[in-house]
Design goal:
The chain has about 120 residues and is mostly helical. It has a domain of about 70 residues. It is about 50% helix and about 10% strand. It is built from 2 helices and 2 strands; from the N terminus they run αββα. A two-stranded antiparallel ribbon has the order 1-2. The two termini are about 75 Å apart. Keywords: Membrane, Transmembrane, Transmembrane helix. It comes from Erythrobacter litoralis (strain HTCC2594). This is Lipopolysaccharide assembly protein A domain-containing protein.
């Protein structure tokens, strides 16, 4: 996606350079009754474009910043409600079993068969 954006910016720059090359003529701009500015056409076009772009770009950045702060706040609130309290790292001690002289009966394997034992 970065390459597409770069290509678009290069095309816009080339178009602006061509426009500037073919329209390099002086024009007079009357701002107020007694204020007259003589400038070139490309400068007038670029300044007009920036006067329209900058306020909307600043508004967009402000809204984006506000929304990202709200999203981060909501994610933090959701994270604190979902996470369980930290568990202790110590394992609880197993309950003591009474000592007996007979070994415990063999447990079945995972396939349900009894293990073979060596009995005399």
């Amino acid at each position: 996606m970065q390459i597409v954006r770069t290509i678009v910016w290069v095309l816009i720059l080339v178009a602006l350079l061509l426009f500037s090359w073919f329209n390099w003529t002086p024009v007079e701009v009357t701002i107020w009754d007694n204020l007259l500015v003589e400038t070139k056409v490309p400068a007038l076009v670029i300044v007009s474009f920036l006067l329209g772009l900058l306020p909307m770009w600043m508004y967009h950045r402000g809204v984006r910043w506000t929304l990202s702060r709200k999203i981060a706040s909501l994610e933090n609130a959701a994270r604190t409600h979902i996470e369980p309290p930290p568990a202790s790292t110590e394992d609880p001690a197993p309950a003591p079993t009474p000592a007996s002289s007979t070994p415990p009966p063999p447990q079945p394997d995972s396939d349900g068969l009894q293990p073979e034992t060596d009995r005399p």
